[in-house]
Amino acid sequence: MKTTTTFIERTDSTWRPRCVYWSPSTGDLLVGMYTIDTGKVTRYNQSGQLTQTIQYHNTGRGLYSIPRYITENNNGDVVVSDLSGVVVTERGGRHRFSYTGPPSGSRLLPCGICTDALSHILVCDVRTVQMINKDGRFLSHLLTKSQEMGLPRSLSYDVNTHRLWVGSWGHNKVCVYRYITRQDALTDEHRPRPDEEAMFSSTPAI
Predict the structure, then answer these.
(1) Mean pLDDT of 25-47
(2) What's the CA gap between 144 and 46, in Å, rounded?
(3) Following DSSP, what letter does each residue of 19-71 receive, concatenated?
(4) Among 157, 163, 198, which residue's Cα sits nearest to residue 181?
(5) CA angle at 158 for the pair 2 and 155, rounded to the nearest 5°
(6) What would be the CATH architecture of the domain defined by 100-206?
(7) How far is the C-alpha of 58 from the C-alpha of 201, rounded, in Å?
(8) Model confidence over 38-77: pLDDT tens digits?
(9) How far apart are CA 37 and CA 204, in angstroms?
(10) What b/e string do you get for 79-92 counting C-beta neighbours within 10 Å, with b at 16 or more?
(11) What H or E segment, with its residue span, contains residue 199?
């Protein structure tokens, strides 16, 4: 805790950092940044050196507008909850797919995002939590709007207990859900069931 590494030091107001993710597999820091009408993801190594910038589709079109949340899948894919939808690229930066919700092209308002032990991508859009597979195919509405959950805004998956933590916007609480078991994670045979029951919820002290 006595060592500080400066990854980004703004010298102008052109690019603004918006979200960060530390990769447990590589030790890299991924940073989502934005400026007027466009965004990018930058990768920094543990020494704070910029090693990669992900910004453009292979057609030259920009991939992001405003990256809001960022995570990484088990295969190394960079998964971004962007203002316009979920954008997934390979670790090397090649665009794999963009997801805008079922049906395709519907208005998705993505917020928190995470991945689980089975490489599912989980994204909340304030109304529900959607589950898609690693290739962008919709699997299920894992959670729909409920009194306990309220308006889901942020997500985190616990790799040790296989629980899903959902932060509620407006309800001032965190709900914890169980939707896969340790055996599911080991056998890769889980079939998601929608609207599974919350295990418990708690109200923050602050």
Answers:
(1) 92
(2) 39
(3) EEEE-TTT--EEEEEEETTEEEEEEE-TTS-EEEEE-B-TTS-BSBS-EEEEE
(4) 163
(5) 95
(6) 6 Propeller (2.120)
(7) 44
(8) 999 999 998 888 999 999 998 889 999 999 999 999 999 9
(9) 35
(10) bbbbebbbbbbebe
(11) strand 198-202
Task: Using pLDDT thresholds of 50, 70 and 90, give the confidence band for residue 201.
Answer: very low
- Cα 195-197-200 angle, rounded to 5 deg: 135
pLDDT of residue 2: 75
Kindly tell me the sign of the dihedral angle through the C-alpha atoms of 96, 102, 106, 110.
negative
Tens digit of pLDDT for each residue in 143-159?
Answer: 665 656 678 889 999 98
What's the predicted TM-score (pTM) here?
A: 0.83
Q: Is 157 in contact with 142 (CB distance < 8 Å)?
A: no
Residue with tokens 């959607």: 130
Alpha helices (runs of H) in the chain, residue ranges in sequence order:
182-187
- Domain residue ranges of the chain, discontinuous segments joined by +: 1-66+89-98, 100-206
In 49-180, DSSP assigns E strands to 50-54, 67-72, 78-82, 85-89, 95-99, 113-115, 121-124, 128-132, 138-144, 151-158, 163-169, 174-178
Per DSSP, 14 falls in state S
Q: How far apart are CA 142 and CA 172, in angstroms?
A: 21
Structure tokens at 85: 């939808």
Dihedral in degrees, nearest 10, Cα atoms 181, 186, 190, 195 = 30
